[in-house]
Amino acid sequence: MLQKTEYLYEFGPFILDTAQHLLSRDKSPVALTPKTYDMLVFLVENHGRLLSKDDLMKAVWPDSFVEESNLTQQVSMIRRALGESASEHRYIVTVPGKGYRFAAPVTQIVKDGPAVRMEIVAPPEPVVPPRRRPQMLIPSLALAALVLLVGIASWLYSRQKSPETLRSLAVLPFQSLGGDAKNDFLGFSLADAIITKLGYVSSLTVRPSSAISGYRHQPIDIAKVAAELHVDTLLTGNYIRDGGDLRITSQLIDVKTQNLLWRETFDLKYDKLLTLQDSVAQQIIKGLKLSLSPSEAEQLKPNNQIAPLAYEYFLRGVDLYANNDFLLAIKMLQQATTMEPGYAPAWANLGRAYSAAASFEFGGRDAYQQAQAAYERALSLQPNLLDAEIFMANLQTDTGKPELAVPLLRRALKANPNHAEAHWELGYAYRFGGMLKESAAECERARELDPGVKINSSAMNAYLYMGEYDKFLESLPRNGDSPYLLFYRGFGEYHKKNSEEAAKYFDRAYDLRSILQTKVGKALSQAIGKKTQSALETLQETEGRIQERGVEDAEAIYKVAQAYAVVGDKTSALRVLSRSIEHGFFPYSYLASDPLLDTIRGEAEFVRLMTVARERQDSFRRALF
Of 386, 388, 376, which is closest to residue 416 (Cα–Cα)? Predict the structure, then answer.
């Protein structure tokens, strides 16, 4: 507790009761985690004051060292509890680089025995200078004017740098003018290199490479693409290669004003291709008039040159990964790391390709181990490589070590608090550890920064686990037709007991591609159709592949346990559930109430497994919150 005096605070429709440790809205309790409650109390007690980040961290975590991302996460959760979006300032105003202010009018009610005395908390009356010293008036007015100017400047600065007014940029794949298919890999991979370079700039949100992949080889309608990607700035370009010569033309466009912010043509030798990402990144920063912190400027320094052929292998590997050809991407990136073992980005992307192969291609334990080794090599070469930290954190969560993922992601967010993918991955790790509200808050923050972040490859499962099925379905892209998303749309409908609709999605997903999730969907569809034996055979074949290849994606494995429970194979359901928990998926708050596990809830083994999950979730919370 942050205070001992018993108070009620009223603001808007809310009452904060410090005696009962309770926030209520219109007499209905609002759920808050302990740290979120503590921070809200401190903000409300000091309403109207600008509280520095240090003030808040010392108040809420007085005896612990925590990353700054913890603070932003708690603020996001308070906003969510109060029904305030990041674009509003009804309750909390963010002053970037400074701290936060609780801006709503507050009425304080002091409990005094059986009686209740109301006190309106208001700013102190201004001090009027004595008449006998009129000479003090001018300095006082000057001071007041100075305070006013500082306030205006702070407001302007907060408007300039607050999340809702951050510049947002999409770097579209470069278009080939040469008609030579063997050089097509350059279009996407050059855009990816620029996106990666700009990932350290916190005053700019850049759409990830996955978001722009679908715009290859397409005529670009500037307004349409900007609306689809939710950006106010686009970088477009084209290239033509003639032997060892390369000409690249690019332009930076302000979508709202249709102004051309910058345009340039680069004529360079093909073996100097690596310099392009540095040049374009600097021109974007100049064109958008962005200010860089010293650490950001350090990260944007030109890369060391590497062998041209090694860089080409690297670019080809990046392009193949984006096309979901993970196995061939691995071969290309292996060539790059063999030729240039000191080039950290090649190791980071090699790890990502191994990790994808492990998860989606049943690559199993060997691929996971190779991914881990590649990430470790990348970070040993470049300890602050943002992509490597984020990719490695994803692997740690996938393989059941979310406790290791969280510090990596908090460190990445310290480098760039506005990195959407880092927020998303942090939400993913929190989900494994059972911190479902915190998970939802991080994923919501990610989508505030980039509405399309991981939109086709991940789902906001925290909503599903909290029983908010409509919200879960709304979070999925309306036109998403990947097997992964079709499975999850079916899964959401299945939870809503719309079985026939769910079966249609499950069957379509499986017909498109046979991956672990779609196999589970196929089994559920067979169960819906009363084909119990076929469902069991599908699950047994899937479980066999998991065991044979050493697949460690504990959340995906959990879905096999759910399906076994649905079709009535209790022994198999408990066996796979045990494997899932042991491999690091332990959200006890969800497992204990999951309706798909109702058939095994009365089993003694289920009770034992819930004890294991609860203990690890509690340990996760104590260590990281």
Answer: 386
Structure tokens at 508: 């379509």
Single-letter amino acid code for the residue at 19: A
Helical spans, DSSP H, in 2-115: 34-45, 53-60, 68-82
Give the CA count within 13 Å in the CB-facing half-sphere of 388: 21
138 in helix, strand or coil?
Answer: helix
pLDDT above 60 for 444: yes
CA gap 274, 271 in Å, rounded: 8
- Helix, strand or coil for residue 63? coil
Q: Give Cα separations from 220 to 217, 224, 288, 551 (angstroms).
A: 9, 8, 22, 40
Q: How much of the chain, in percent, has pLDDT values that exceed 70?
A: 87
Assign 508 to helix, strand or coil: helix
Average pLDDT, the chain: 84
Residue 496 is given by DSSP the state T
Residue 438's region, left for phi above 0, alpha for psi from -120 to 50, else beta, is alpha
Cα separation, 496 vs 597, in Å, equals: 15
DSSP SS3 for 17 = strand
Question: Which of 536, 575, 576 lies closest to 560 in space, CA to CA?
Answer: 576
Average pLDDT over residues 106-130: 47
Residue 208 has pLDDT above 80, yes or no: yes
* 16 three-state secondary structure: strand
In this structure, the strands spanning 204-206 and 28-30 are unpaired
Average of per-residue pLDDT across 151-156: 33
Model confidence at 148, pLDDT cuts 50, 70, 90, reads very low
Residue 425 in contact with residue 73, Cβ under 8 Å?
no
Asked whether 477 and 448 are in contact (CB, 8 A), the reply is no
Question: b vs e for 203-222, b when ≥16 Cβ sit within 10 Å of the residue's Cβ?
Answer: bbbbbbbbbbbebbeeeeee
- Cα 446 from Cα 575, distance rounded (Å): 35
Confidence (pLDDT) at 343: 93
